[in-house]
Design brief:
The protein is built from five helices and no strands. By secondary structure, it is an all-alpha fold. The chain has a single domain, classed as Cytochrome c-like domain (Cytochrome Bc1 Complex, Chain D, domain 2), CATH 1.10.760. Helix 4 packs across helix 5 (136-147). It starts with a helix and ends with a helix. Bound molecules: heme C. The site of heme C (HEC) has 25 residues, from helix 4 and helix 5.
Length: 150
C-alpha cells in the first residue's frame, strides 16, 4: 500500500513536471515522411479532439480561423485565404492531416499556411526562435479534431 502510494506520487510529479516544462521547450519529436504524409503519431498518445478545437480557435496557437472557415459557430470571424475545413476529415487521411499540420510546405512549398511543427521559419517572433508554434501533442490534438469534421 505504502509502496503504491509512493509510485503514484512519483508519477504525479513526472506528469506535472512535463506540463510545467512548457510545451514548446520540449525536444523535437522524430518523425518520418512517407510519400508526403506522416503515418506515425508524433507522440504515441492519442490526440484530444476537444483540445484540438480550442487550439484551432486560439490566436496564439493554431489561429486556423484567420484563414479557414470552420464549423465553430461561436467565433464570428473566419478568414477565407484557405479552403473551408468542413468535411476535411471525410476526404483526408490522418497521415495527410498530420503532414499538413507539421509542415504544409512539404505539400505545397508556396503555401501561406504556417508550418506548425518546424523551427527556423522566417518572420517569426523572437520568442519563437528555435521553437515550434505547436507542441507535438498539440499537433496530434488538432489532427484528432480535424478527423471529426466529416
Ligand atoms: C495564413 C493562413 C493559414 C493558416 C493560419 C492556416 N491555414 Fe490551413 N491552409 C491555408 C491555405 C492557403 C491552404 C490551401 C492549400 C495550400 O495552400 O497548399 C490550407 C490548407 C489546409 C488544409 C487542407 C484542406 C483540404 O481541403 O485538403 C488543412 C486540413 C488545413 N489547412 C488545416 C489548417 C489548420 C488546422 C490550421 C490551424 C492549426 C490552419 N490550417 C491554419 C492557409 C492557412
Amino acid at each position: 500500500m505504502k509502496h503504491s502510494k509512493l509510485l503514484a506520487t512519483a508519477f504525479g510529479v513526472a506528469v506535472a513536471g512535463a506540463i510545467s516544462f512548457g510545451a514548446q521547450a520540449e525536444e523535437m519529436a522524430a518523425f518520418e515522411i512517407v510519400d508526403g504524409t506522416i503515418p506515425q503519431s508524433l507522440t504515441g498518445t492519442p490526440g484530444d479532439p476537444a483540445n484540438g478545437r480550442k487550439i484551432a480557435i486560439n490566436r496564439k496557437k493554431g489561429n486556423c480561423l484567420a484563414c479557414h472557415v470552420m464549423p465553430i459557430p461561436e467565433e464570428q470571424f473566419h478568414g477565407e485565404t484557405g479552403p473551408a475545413l468542413d468535411g476535411v476529415g471525410g476526404y483526408s487521411t490522418e497521415a495527410e492531416l498530420r503532414m499538413r499540420m507539421v509542415d504544409a510546405k512539404v505539400i505545397n512549398e508556396d503555401t501561406m499556411m504556417p508550418s506548425f511543427y518546424k523551427t527556423g521559419q522566417h518572420m517569426v517572433l523572437k520568442s519563437f526562435e528555435g521553437k515550434t508554434i505547436l507542441s507535438a501533442q498539440e499537433v496530434e490534438d488538432v489532427v484528432a479534431y480535424l478527423l471529426t469534421l466529416k
